[in-house]
């Protein structure tokens, strides 16, 4: 079993906190992703698992063992970094074999055969004699992956392995990585700043912000039930609208601003605090342009329309608030439009100022 468990891990650099009480638990064989903006602590979390940083407080367990004080080479983890340049003076084969230097992988295959198997695994069979400089960026990252997997690690750590590649290649290689992870069943912690990538390939996602974990959950839950204003804004397109509390029992809010009070009152599951004002999250695809029979209707005007191919991204204005709508009609809308909202698609993501 190769779970990875962090409990209340804090790390600081020169007295400045980089991780604040980070707790997370990655199951055996899980594809777990850390996502968040630059500087939020993703790399530090990964380096702490790998043993390059020691926590000031808190514990790290790998495979049921507290790894405090265990050096990186004895932690049985494989790592791929964003720009982990391959050794230029070594062939592809030698680069992959370098991954075998510390330990004998499980099984009784000799090193040459093991390297061949790994090259095949990352779809680079027959490329062993090439020099790294002859390879494309995507091929180099495949080799870096093969090198990390060479010793048969219990845990694979991937720090933005695709971020140096162009968009098309990134989308292709993320599926390659996911397929490989499934095939090997290896516990994986993947780091990216790209929320779409995180949602696309992960079993579960941890959204990080300012050294803390804001939310952990399956991609669907992160997207549909954001636990905070930060998550609601960071993950996917979203509308954050101001709401006023109408009553606390039962919990009801009203979209702030003009309009018919009755028509914009929404029953919600719960309210975050005693605040009189709250922030409401509504996804653009849940705002139905032209649906006048929806439980809540807003009369809005169209500001800007972007054509996306499969839909229009319509920027509307309703009572001084902007409302983003994903519209799948045949033609770009214009002028005054009706926006229909189903209260069930509205999530309260925080009180005033949160
Ligand atoms: P991310 O990978 O999410 O971009 P990092 O984990 O690299 O974030 O950094 C988290 C915070 O810790 C940042 O404020 C960064 O400047 C700081 N930090 C990271 N590594 C060091 C270091 N070696 N020395 C000083 N500060 C660091
Ligand atoms: Mg980083």
From TrEMBL:
UniProt-annotated location(s): Cell membrane
InterPro entries associated with the record: AAA+_ATPase, ABC_SmlMolc_Importer, ABC_transporter-like_ATP-bd, ABC_transporter-like_CS, Mo/tungstate-bd_C_term_dom, NA-bd_OB-fold, P-loop_NTPase, Transp-assoc_OB_typ2
Bilayer topology term: Peripheral membrane protein
Pfam families in UniProt: ABC_tran, TOBE_2
E.C. number(s) listed in UniProt: 7.3.2.6
Domain of life: Archaea
Chain ranges of the ABC transporter domain: 4-235
Transport in keyword set: yes
Reactions mediated catalytically: tungstate(in) + ATP + H2O = tungstate(out) + ADP + phosphate + H(+)
Enzyme class: translocase
GO cellular component: ATP-binding cassette (ABC) transporter complex
Entry function: Part of the ABC transporter complex WtpABC involved in molybdate/tungstate import. Responsible for energy coupling to the transport system.
Subunit structure: The complex is composed of two ATP-binding proteins (WtpC), two transmembrane proteins (WtpB) and a solute-binding protein (WtpA).
Name of the protein in question: Molybdate/tungstate import ATP-binding protein WtpC
């Amino acid at each position: 079993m190769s779970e990875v468990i962090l409990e209340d891990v804090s790390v600081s650099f020169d007295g400045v906190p980089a991780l604040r009480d980070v707790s997370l638990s990655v199951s055996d064989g899980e594809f777990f992703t850390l996502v968040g903006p630059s500087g939020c602590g993703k790399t530090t979390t990964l380096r702490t698992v790998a043993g390059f940083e020691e926590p000031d407080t808190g514990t790290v367990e790998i495979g049921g063992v507290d790894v405090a004080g265990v050096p990186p080479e004895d932690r049985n983890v494989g790592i791929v970094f964003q720009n982990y340049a391959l050794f230029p003076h070594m062939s592809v084969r030698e680069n992959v074999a370098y991954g075998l230097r510390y330990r004998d992988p499980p099984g009784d295959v000799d090193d040459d055969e093991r390297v061949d198997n790994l090259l095949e695994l990352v779809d680079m069979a027959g490329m062993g004699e090439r020099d790294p400089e002859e390879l494309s960026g995507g091929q180099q990252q495949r080799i870096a992956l093969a090198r990390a997997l060479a010793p048969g690690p219990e845990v694979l750590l991937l720090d933005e392995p695709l971020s140096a590649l162009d968009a098309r290649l990134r989308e292709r290689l993320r599926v390659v990585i996911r397929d490989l992870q499934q095939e090997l069943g290896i516990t994986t912690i993947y780091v990216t700043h790209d929320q779409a990538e995180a949602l696309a390939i992960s079993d579960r996602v941890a959204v990080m912000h300012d050294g803390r974990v804001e939310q952990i959950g399956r991609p669907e839950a992160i997207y549909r039930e954001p636990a905070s204003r930060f998550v609601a804004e960071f993950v996917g397109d979203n509308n954050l609208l101001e709401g006023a509390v109408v009553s606390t029992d039962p919990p009801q809010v009203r979209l702030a601003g003009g309009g018919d009070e009755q028509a914009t009152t929404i029953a919600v599951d719960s309210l975050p605090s005693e605040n009189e004002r709250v922030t409401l999250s509504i996804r653009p695809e849940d705002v139905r342009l032209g649906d006048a029979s929806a439980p809540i209707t807003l009369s809005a005007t169209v500001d800007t329309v972007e054509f996306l191919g499969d839909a229009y991204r319509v920027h509307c204005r309703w009572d001084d608030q902007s409302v983003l709508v994903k519209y799948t009609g045949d033609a770009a809308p214009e002028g005054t439009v009706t926006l229909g909202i189903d209260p069930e698609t509205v999530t309260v993501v925080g009180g005033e100022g949160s």
